[in-house]
Amino acid sequence: MATRSIWVFLGGATSAVAGLVLTYETTIGDVLYLVTYLTLCTFMWLAVRRTPPGRDRRPWVLVAASQSLWVIGDSIEMAYFYLTGDVPPVGVADVFWLAGYPLLALALTMMARRRAPGRLRGAVLDGLTLTVAGAMASWQFLIAPYLDSGYGLAEMIVPPLYPVADVALLAAVLFIALSPGDRRMPTRLLLAAVGLYLTIDIAYNVLPNFLDYTLVARIGPLIMLGNAMIIAACLHPDRAELTRPGQQVNVLHPSRVLFLGLAFLSAPVLSLVENGLARNAVIALVATALSTGFILARFTIAVREQEKAQAQLAYQARHDPLTGLANRAVLTDELERVMPRRSGPVAVLYLDLDGFKQVNDTHGHEAGDLVLATVARRLSSAVRGTDLVVRLGGDEFVLLCPDLPEADAIRLAERVVGDVAQPISFRGALLDVGASVGIAAYGADAPAHDSDVLRTADMAMYQAKKQGRGRWVMAGA
Length: 477
Prior knowledge:
Helices cover about 70% and strands about 10% of the residues. The protein is an alpha+beta fold. One of its GO terms (molecular function) is diguanylate cyclase activity. Its EC number is 2.7.7.65.
């Protein structure tokens, strides 16, 4: 589904949820609530069918199953209300509601493992640190009060299971939020949806202490807005970023350090809230806060130094050291990304320098390096910001130009031939080189595999070489 269609879908879902909030706990509102919920579940399963079969589909199946369990729970509660006129504090519906949480948590954990294979250790440790802090707060404010309430066994055990389920869900979503990988629209939608689920659950437990429950109950339909966000993430063309390894370097964000610091302070703060503001306790809390700040500052400095070294190594692995251009590995990745999902034309220009060997033989390798660096700058100036300039090695270069029609690709080739042919000054001499260019241009509907594109452009370049210096040839012409 196109991005624009996804926004239209989310806009429609938001309008429907707003109407459900306004009509909540009316007969018409109840009917619309159930119809909307079932419709969204149907959309979720249809979205799952559109994902490729295999490992990438399995997490989405679990997500759809969790949403289905929740709607079954709501249907049971609604049927019980209209048949008996009352809803028990604990019932069969709770079984289905609670069963949905571990399925969703498992799906998120599977996504985290697949998007960062072998690189999830830091995210797991940080996520568990924050989860322990959340678990302590849940125990003190949400679980312990129920256990000491004097209710019956079922009413004393089942309600605290929801905060426990939320803690498990928090851990799973933190694994994704803190893991390395791309952060485009599907990831942001998924994180926002799970964040909304957790916020609603907390609000259900906290707000009744301050507001009338009839007002608090109206937030229930907002769960469906979270469902719609997950459906949109599943339908998005970039949804594979949630189930396949990403290339983003793991960088320590300042907010991550802040949250870790707050997690470290959660235990003394909760103890202080529980036992009162004794002077020694306040002093201990201040000392703990200062120590935590110093430790995290030292930790951040060490991590920044390591990140800088890793970034330098990653750059060197994907760029040519002489010209600074991307190398063959980058080109391979971009062809694999662009060609299967292109919605417009694509052009690839394969360049080989004419006369470069004579420059090296006559003036030495220093002159040859100057030629390569100068040609690289001229090629970078000739293309658009969205194009990729690559040095394959030796005196061969490639321009990958998405959304470039054939006629524009020809004009670009003519400009490149002219720019490269401009003399280059070296120690009082003028170095003269040219360029033979092969063009492989494909329309939006033309079948093409990433390996065939480069080979086709290479063959066209050799045809240009045979015809003479400073020419371009269109493949297939």
